[in-house]
Design goal:
By secondary structure, this protein is mainly alpha-helical. The protein has a single domain, classed as ADP-ribosylation/Crystallin J1 (ADP-ribosylglycohydrolase fold), CATH 1.10.4080.10. It contains 15 helices and no strands. It has helices spanning 2-11, 35-49, 53-63, 71-79, 91-94, 97-102, 106-118, 124-140, 146-157, 165-168, 182-190, 195-203, 209-224, 229-238, 241-254. The longest helix is centred in the middle third of the chain and has 17 residues, at 124-140. The radius of gyration is 16 Å and the shape is globular. The chain starts with a helix and ends in a 7-residue tail after the last helix.
Length: 261
């Protein structure tokens, strides 16, 4: 799941302001982890410990203030209420990558992805976005060709993954919805040549750059067998130690991607 966090940190400075180009420095002084990383770690903690996911999300959010939380989620996390609020936003997809790495049974991936979404994003589109992202990681871990991944996601979730980035990019606008983020991020992965290229592809679309890159980065990590060492180092320097500790425990328990490319 470090690939998802890497995408979040690299994309953090490009949200709203990207010039729709792949030519940019990967890390700058202001590169920082956002809510995408905080909530990814919350899901990992849930899988590691069996702790209630609602509790984990709320506690992590309160422990890491000012990380760009969506307004509906922020209100939910600080309201004292525990019921989901019917969101179809991309928050369910941005945090789900640990599910795709943790399980080797497709039905289990689907079930856990739904559970990870439904504590907040219980709208069918919120669940679909989380499941599609986790399933893409599941297939990417299995050394399948890109067309297998593309076809499985299209068949199971109805997303059109046959568009190209060049077709999408000129008219793409900021979207916090699952349907306006997940297929675009998956196409960014499908057109990539390596992990870094997947991140650059996602950010070049503009819009919700950190979340696009977070989703693409999780799948790319699974497909390319990990995160390049220099990116890994930069991420570790920027991530809060308490979050990094969960990332490493997750890797110790569920394994780390190995290269098959």
């Amino acid at each position: 799941m470090l690939g998802a966090i890497a995408g979040d940190i690299i994309g953090s400075v490009h949200e709203f302001g990207c010039g729709k180009t792949k030519d940019f420095p990967l890390f700058v002084a202001d590169s920082r982890y956002t809510d995408d990383s905080v909530h990814t770690v919350a899901v990992a903690d849930w899988l590691l410990t069996g702790k209630d996911l609602t509790d984990s999300l709320i506690e992590r959010t309160r422990a890491h203030p000012g990380r760009g939380y969506g307004s509906m989620f922020f209100q939910w996390a600080h309201s004292g209420q525990r019921e989901p609020y019917g969101s179809y936003g991309n928050g369910s997809a941005m945090r789900v990558s640990p599910v795709g790495f943790a399980f080797d049974d497709l039905d289990e991936v689907l079930a856990r992805a739904e559970l990870s979404a439904a504590v907040t994003h219980n709208h069918p589109e919120g669940v679909r976005g989380a499941q599609a992202t986790a399933v893409a990681i599941y297939w990417a871990r299995r050394t399948q060709g890109r067309e297998v991944i593309r076809n499985e996601i299209e068949r199971s979730f109805g997303y059109d993954l046959h568009r190209t980035l060049d077709e999408i990019r000129p008219h793409y606008q900021f979207s916090e919805t699952c349907w306006g983020t997940v297929p675009q991020a998956l196409i960014a992965f499908l057109e990539s040549t390596n992990f870094e290229d997947a991140i650059r592809n996602a950010i070049s679309l503009g819009g919700d750059a950190d979340t696009l890159a977070c989703i693409a980065g999780g799948v790319a990590e699974a497909y390319y067998g990990g995160v390049p060492p220099e990116i890994d180092r930069q991420v570790r320097e920027r991530l809060d130690p308490a979050l990094l500790e969960v990332v490493d425990r997750f890797g110790d328990k569920f394994g780390r991607p190995s290269s098959h490319r």
